[in-house]
Design brief:
four-stranded antiparallel sheet
């Protein structure tokens, strides 16, 4: 082979790794998994406290940085998992299987259905919902699950609760029905307040708030909700069908799918990354400074959370980002651009966290909001920057459970966000 041909082959190789002008990089770490069963969903119960469910009743728990198989009361496939706190968790699966975690062990819970259940979401300890095949919707109220009237013949794959709205995603071949929204508890079809018409099948829905949501599915679709309607994401690239989506904040998200597909969202752009596997990926999560993806044959992948500079802040225990800066105009901060920044300390915190605002110009009021890792809004309040001592304010965290949270500050047209950890 001539030197020229060898040079051309090298150029071709690098061009194949370039998608949308961005080099695809492989930083994903394969974590030790105690199972070879297919893994279908992952969630967080609090700081450094993660759960995965999968086929044949598989339940995995990560604590102290290692995964362990947990005793399961079923051999049925488990498809969805949700935790309200470290002592309150739910999992659903095949043949109407419902499991509850009581803080010490998983136990079977009475189910009103025999059809497969695929996803579960809770508002609080007394109110939740699960969905499944053949249009199944069941509601949990005051200790009992009950079946609701069938509103569609298709299959539901995802349910998500936000701001007093239930969102349901699914699909049926040749039928337009992938996304529904109910105001409050769904009881009949006439109470649908919003829907999205498409032949796509929605596999996963995740909302940051009532006006910012994402949905992914098949065939190869990404949708964004802007508060009034669902739109196909204009920056979507060619990729396999997707099974799960998760967003930490406005500028950081993850979607996973078939044949090891990994898409990372950062500042209004999706980038396809090398996962190092061709296994189907089923669940996505961003928590405790890491991205997670789980899938077939016991696959568990993780990557450190990359902040604006592309670096990660790593402590001896848990990696957390130093700063996650975003703004409505998606500009990079520079000496010429008056960009506000946040400094949170201590982090992790216990009783309080001091919020120091760097780069304030003028005396505009600001709005602080706190969300958990499931995107639920926990607190929102206005702050006055005029007369603020040392440009800082104190947020009490006594009533927050030990977990990871996202603090978002908006002043004028600028928005900045940062994760912080409460550890009691």
């Amino acid at each position: 082979m001539s030197e020229m041909n060898r040079y051309l082959r090298i150029l071709l190789l690098f061009s194949c790794l370039n998608i949308g002008g961005k080099i695809v990089h492989s930083q994903w770490h394969v974590e030790n998994s105690p199972t070879i069963c297919n893994l279908n969903a992952i969630t967080s119960a609090g700081f450094n406290d993660l759960w995965i469910v999968g086929d044949f009743g598989t339940i995995l728990h990560k604590k102290d940085d290692s995964w362990h198989a947990v005793s399961s009361p079923t051999l049925e496939n488990l498809y969805g998992v949700f935790f309200l706190s470290k002592n309150q968790g739910w999992a659903v699966g095949a043949k109407g299987t419902i499991l509850r975690y009581n803080g010490e062990a998983w136990e079977k819970y009475d189910s009103p259905v025999k059809s497969d259940l695929t996803s579960v979401s809770f508002i609080d300890k007394e109110n939740g919902a699960a969905v499944g095949k053949s249009g199944t919707i069941i509601i949990y109220e005051s200790g009992t699950w009950s079946l609701k009237p069938n509103i569609q013949r298709g299959d539901f794959y995802s349910v998500f609760y936000t701001d007093n709205n239930y969102w349901f995603g699914g699909g049926l071949e040749c039928v337009n029905f992938p996304i529904f929204k109910f105001k409050g508890t769904p009881t009949k079809k006439s109470e649908i307040t919003e829907n999205y018409q498409s032949l796509a099948t929605i596999k996963s829905i995740h909302f940051l708030n009532a006006s910012n949501g994402w949905a992914v599915g098949s065939p190869s679709i990404i949708l964004h909700y802007n508060g009034s309607s669902w739109q196909k994401d204009s920056d979507s690239k060619n990729f396999s069908s997707l099974n799960s989506v998760f967003f930490l904040n406005d500028s950081s998200g993850l979607a996973v799918g078939m044949k090891g597909t990994l898409l990372r969202y950062y500042k209004n752009s999706w980038t396809k990354e090398q996962s190092g596997t061709d296994k189907h990926l089923k669940g996505a999560l961003i928590v405790d400074g890491r991205f997670y993806a789980v899938g077939n044959n016991g696959t568990i992948l993780s990557d450190f959370f990359n902040v604006t500079t592309g670096n990660s802040f790593i402590t001896q225990s848990t990696p957390i980002p130093v700063q996650d800066i975003s703004n409505n105009n998606s500009k990079e901060p520079s000496p010429e651009f008056d960009s506000i920044r946040l400094s949170l300390s201590p982090n992790p915190c216990n009783e309080f966290v001091e919020i120091k605002i760097i780069g304030i110009t003028g005396q505009k009021p600001g709005l602080i909001s706190i969300t958990d890792m499931k995107g639920q809004l926990l607190l929102q309040k206005e702050i006055k920057t005029e007369g603020m001592k040392d440009n800082s304010t104190i947020l009490r965290t006594d009533d927050f459970m030990s977990s990871t949270y996202v603090l978002k500050l908006s002043i004028g047209e600028q928005t900045v966000s940062q994760m912080f950890i409460v550890k009691h």
